Fold this sequence. Notes:
- The protein is globular.
- The chain is 47% helix and 13% strand.
- An eight-stranded mixed β-sheet has the order 3-2-1-4-5-6-7-8, with helices on both faces.
- The protein has two domains: 3-185, 3-Layer(aba) Sandwich (Rossmann fold), CATH 3.40.50.720; 196-280, N-(1-d-carboxylethyl)-l-norvaline Dehydrogenase, domain 2 (Orthogonal Bundle).
- It is of the alpha/beta class.
- The longest helix has 20 residues, at 39-58.
- Nicotinamide-adenine-dinucleotide (NAD) binds at residues 12-18, 35-38, 41, 93-96, 100, 104, 121-123, 145-147, 240-241, 244.
Amino acid sequence: MKIEDVKNVCxxxxxxxxxxxxxxxxxxxxxxxxxxxxxxVLEKAEKFVDSYLAGRVQKGKLTEEEAKAxxxxxxxxxxxxxxxxxxxxxxxxxxxxxxxxRKIFADLDKIAPPNAILATNSSFIVSSRIASATNRxxxxxxxxxxxxxxxxKLVEVVQGPHVSxxxxxxxxxxxxxxxxxxxxxxxxxxxxxxxxxxxxxxxxALWMLEMGVASVEDIDKACVYGAGHPMGPFRLNDLTGxxxxxxxxxxxxxxxxxxxxxxSPSVVKLYTQGKYGQKTGEGWYSYKK
Length: 289
Ligand SMILES: NC(=O)c1ccc[n+]([C@@H]2O[C@H](COP(=O)([O-])OP(=O)(O)OC[C@H]3O[C@@H](n4cnc5c(N)ncnc54)[C@H](O)[C@@H]3O)[C@@H](O)[C@H]2O)c1
């Protein structure tokens, strides 16, 4: 697949990441279908698109015509077959569970055109662990966006040993077309580049909190006012989702058997209380007002 041949995009999963990735693709001129298994999630995504586009027009960032054309390029369906049947690029953004991702890629392999690229937005699962569920491993790669996907410029394109140069090049070009800044990661490493760096910060922040060294607020202040980060690790964790952190730690533990990989006690406490961060109205901070 070459970038000139990419016209249609399908985004599987319309949650935190998926709905914004889909909108970014539609804003950039690609015909985009967003799909999810939960009808309420799709409804919410559609409402978000409408209000986002109206807001951009109000702020003078888009003309009425541009907003209309973008709206016409994005559609929503609960039917994966319908969503992926004409896709040139599929971006999967479902829950961070390897068995679920492998099942979806096996299905996509049957549904999407044979030359389509199948990419995963997974935060930690390398695509070689998913590619073997398909008959087109050379066209399966990681395409890792950051939250919020409409705002954050970085996208990591990860070229595992099974990924063809053509696929990696097409994904790098695709990112430029959707107005992002791609980086080419030439080896599959857990967490890719930025999340490896963030994992160290997050681990230290949790350790300091649990040792009573400083509060959530003060650790965040240190990163914002001392290191110039736009937000501290706890505020960021509320944005990305404490459930996601929990899932990632658990899957590392299942693989390694190393208790050091288990989620820290304060993460487990929030997770079991259903306090996942912004999406549930409470996490490290409260968002109820
Ligand atoms: N949250 C972040 O900050 C962030 C950042 C970068 C990457 N990611 C990655 O993006 C992926 C999605 O994360 P998220 O935060 O958007 O999760 P989320 O829980 O907000 O959304 C996941 C969506 O997938 C849907 N889904 C589940 N099974 C499905 C299926 N079979 N078909 C279609 N949809 C299905 C769910 O209904 C849900 O709406 C994960 O792999 C995660 O690691 C997340």
